[in-house]
């Protein structure tokens, strides 16, 4: 749905165009404030109850059950905003049990500006596991939104053997002199992205722009009731990326806006409540030689304009002098909501764990390889549990498979968006008896009773309904949960999350009607419940799915997959290697997964990715034999995804993770401490 928003000067807005909206927002804000005041009251009551409980138990502080732990962390070299605080979360109740909202906050030392301290009572004779984080705290609600955190694979660990313990640390350096800090996951609130692609801005009349003049755009989060800018805070914090190689990290906007030359530009806004944030876009014309700026116009986007997870906005800039339309802007938006109930124990995390000894992992494509093809098909049906187990027995370190949802939101393993079924009750005699129907239109139970077909070499091939196959491991459409519970846990997995793409030449892979946040949340819910004790990662051809996976969870790496045909899809982030690396850098993804054929146009592909500290997985038909696989491994890639792994890997090859003692210790810690 396209939304049209036009902004004139502030007086006109308040008196005419937005009078009814302001009235609506006032009523809304009043209701919201009452709700927030109630929440704050409840939180304060809870905190008071905890304090009273501590007073009641104060006699225990000198017994053998309590240790007084003095946390002291140095943040030298770490930038921290005035509205941000430092916290410590951990495995005991007094440390929030890994819950950022309940974790104690440290105070800045009076003697050392870079030092933060806190004193906490913890249980004696137990292992203390903890991590530091930096967060923004909303003043009105006291909601804590994590912004950065320590991501070493193993948390800090201390055995509390004495009544007084001092933990003196450097932020991010769980291992000495090895800094590991990353942007935090979205523990609460929302992220809103505004995406401007090629030629998004169209002026009503051509401006006589000279070479030293530049168009600038500035996005300001505003209070929707007062129409006043919101200072950088937990309530709203805006950044941008111009998606340039080597400099695409999210940054704060210049005072007069970001130079826009009709290439890709991203605005990102973090917030605790998207209903409390509107957006004011300002259009400026700057002159480098004179040092002056001309204000051309502005426009306002209300919170309710972003009423779905993703969409397109067509908005108009209006002159503040006469209210006339100056230019029109077409941009896409994405709303990311925090994953409901994503509360996991962070004794371990594999978010940034891919040691050098794992370079060149062998990853089975859809298990043992594609089977629904004419040339050299795998003997076992692809994307079945049997195919996964066969790959493991052949020596695969991981398998890559495709995940999508049924109509009743069950994550299943299947590649194609559309299924070929017969129109009548009998067997199809010709292709005219077959039709295509989307997987999302079937419930999981309906799929179990569905006979499907494929046309291979002009021959119609029938595949039995899963419920009619006696061996569950040989059935099509296994659930994601079944993979985790029924395959060897040493077998790692790359879950490629399917989402239909618009083609560059026109058309779309399939129509998706499930909400994007709901789609990702349904998959992550299964991952949260049953994935522990196994090495996993995510990937997708959809850049926004990758970004959502990065924000919604804090355990597994995310790769942005790039097509073998460039450009195949409409999204310019998929058009070649550089935009893919820039996307990974802008949104803190772990790496990219291009087709191996990328080396034909970019022989330095691995170097380009490694310079930005991004990992590389390769896939595609170029990885067709043992010689080719060996050559690509020498290029320094992190893993290779290929078919017929049973015929390519050496006969004595064994699974890498099965013999990795350090990894098994991490898994043991993860499982022994519990995960949820």
Radius of gyration: 27 Å
> What average pLDDT do the residues reach?
90
Tell me the β content: 25-35%
What is the domain tally? 3
Distance from first to last alpha carbon: 39 Å
Side by side, the strands of the main sheet go 21-22-28-29-30-31-32-33
The CATH class of the largest domain is identified as Alpha Beta
β-strand number: 33
Task: Give the uncertain stretches in residue-range form.
Answer: 1-62
Structural class: alpha/beta
CATH topology of the largest domain: TIM Barrel
Q: What is the 3D form? A: globular
- From the coordinates shown, what is the CATH architecture of the largest domain? Alpha-Beta Barrel
Biggest beta sheet summary: 8 strands, parallel, barrel
CATH superfamily of the largest domain: Phosphatidylinositol (PI) phosphodiesterase
Please give the share of residues in helix.
Answer: 10-25%
Give the number of helices: 13
Task: Give a brief rundown of this model.
With 676 residues, the chain is of the alpha/beta class. It has three domains: 6-13 and 189-337, C2 domain (Immunoglobulin-like, Sandwich), CATH 2.60.40; 57-181, Immunoglobulins (Immunoglobulin-like, Sandwich), CATH 2.60.40.10; 359-415 and 472-672, Phosphatidylinositol (PI) phosphodiesterase (TIM Barrel), CATH 3.20.20.190.
Keywords:
3 domains; 13 helices; 676 residues; Immunoglobulin-like; 21% helix; eight-stranded parallel beta barrel; alpha/beta; TIM Barrel; globular
